[in-house]
Amino acid sequence: MSTKKYRVLVGQIFQETHGFSPVPTTMGAFEVDPASTMIDTQRQSDSTLGGIIRTLEAAGVTLVPSIAARARCGGKVTNEAYAEISSAIVAAAESAEVDAIALDLHGCMQTQALDSAERDLLLRLRAVVGPGLPIVAGFDLHAHATSEMLALLDFGSAYKTNPHADAAQTGARVADRLLAMLRNGERPTGYFLRLPMLTSGNDETGTGPLHAIHAAAQTAIANDAHLVDYSIFNVNPFIDGPAVGQGILVYGAGDEGAAHAARLANTLAQAVWQARTAFVHTLPTIDEVVARHPRSAQAVTIGDFGDRVLAGAPGDSVYILDRILAMGDRHVTIIVTDPDAYERCAAAGEGATLDITLGASLTPGLTPTTVSGRVKRLGDGSFTNRGQFMKGGVLRLGPHAVLEGDNFIALITQDAVMSQDPGCYLDAGVTLDGADIIVVKSGYHFKLAFQDYGLCVIAETPGLTGFAPETLPFKHCRPIYPLDAVTPTMEARRLTRG
């Protein structure tokens, strides 16, 4: 075993694109840790990058920082923003002598010019370091995974949970595999299979069809020494591209594990395809949620499913607020993206009372509401995640106003905010103790953080992130299920670099 002191370049680009959102993701949407601070900052985070950093440092590796940049889900990233962030990683690879590269990537970032920003980044890195230097990456399981992108890596692995409770563990797994490559020259053999298919709900890993499929995969890995790892990529269903679909990735141990990896990949793909009609859900309406859960000592946190910022919606719906205020006897705490309403609050100043038209400023087809309240607080900055999903991670909150009325508190933000964690409210000065109904722009991950306040439920609401693929102008990924009749090829192919 080698005792060499290894140098590994580390970096992060993390954004999930909603290809049909009208709001582009600019550089201002990213929370950025430059090379000078990223190691210390990310070491404390339960992100994939945090897991990578802690694992490599524990093994005595010298880390070479580049940049750590993450943004809320949203529209396509502007070319300028992607160029600025990606160039920092490429420049670090050009200027530093390293033995390997380890990255934290979402995997579903599209730009105004690129179908896959991650593939472009990896191509540019390969052009710098050549085909032999190990490059590994950890991904969100909603990545837009393609064989062309994955073939540029020596190892890639996705979260195994949705809601995502294992980001740091994914980073540790990626780092452990990299250490084995560096010490022993072990290169796993990857097999990948794409299914032309979109899911329409019922895709949490703790229940439904994915629970059994992941359990079978984990059993296979545990019982076969020729198998290294698997990933099931349930692609974000709001992007369009030539190879969009479900992805199955399995690694075997060297050439000896090739047949084992191919066999498991085919088996998992068949299981996902056979369950395709089960990937749908029926959600309650807001009226049904409120009727089922009368006011009590504990809050009810409602995921606004149609307006999920975590799936790329602008976060500007006030549908839940409007419906509950019309009922007259409940109190709502809600976060809303509305640049114009924020500007009105900022111009009026803290302590001012005003009537304001709120919401529906960005998403076509939504309806605004009119409320009266007092500007309790104005602010700007970031917030820190408290819950299990990326605990300790710092995310952008941006300019915001807290407007308080008789039956509501509205956290009005200039830009869309990832509100899956109570930190977005708490760090804006909004207390959740004693809250009645809390609204978040999330469908899954909020359950990992808001459960301490009471019951967590999701509701069917209007917006860009409801599961209705027939309403979106898909073009490049077709034919694809459930929009078209398709018969997939159930044969995984070995990942090879051309």
Name the overall outline.
globular
Number of helices: 13
Q: Could you give me the name of the CATH homologous superfamily of the largest domain?
A: Response regulator
Overall tally of structural domains: 3
Mind telling me which CATH architecture of the largest domain this is?
3-Layer(aba) Sandwich
Quick one: CATH class of the largest domain?
A: Alpha Beta
State the strand order across the main sheet: 12-13-16-17-11-18-10-19
Rounded mean pLDDT score? 95
Distance between the termini: 30 Å
The biggest beta sheet reads: 8 strands, mixed
Low-confidence stretches: none
Top keywords for this entry?
3 domains, six-stranded mixed sheet, Rossmann fold, eight-stranded mixed sheet, 23% strand, alpha/beta, 498 residues, TATA-Binding Protein
Describe this protein's structure.
With 498 residues, the protein is of the alpha/beta class. The protein contains 13 helices and 20 strands. The chain has an eight-stranded mixed β-sheet with strand order 12-13-16-17-11-18-10-19, with helices on one face. A six-stranded mixed β-sheet has the order 2-3-1-4-5-6. The mean pLDDT is 95.
Summarize the structure.
The chain has helices at 38-43, 48-58, 79-95, 117-129, 147-150, 167-184, 208-223, 258-274, 286-292, 319-327, 339-348, 423-426, 447-450, and strands at residues 7-14, 30-34, 62-71, 100-105, 135-139, 155-158, 189-195, 227-233, 246-252, 299-304, 332-337, 353-358, 369-379, 382-384, 394-396, 400-404, 408-413, 437-440, 454-459, 493-494. α2 (48-58) packs parallel to α6 and α7 runs antiparallel to α8 (258-274).
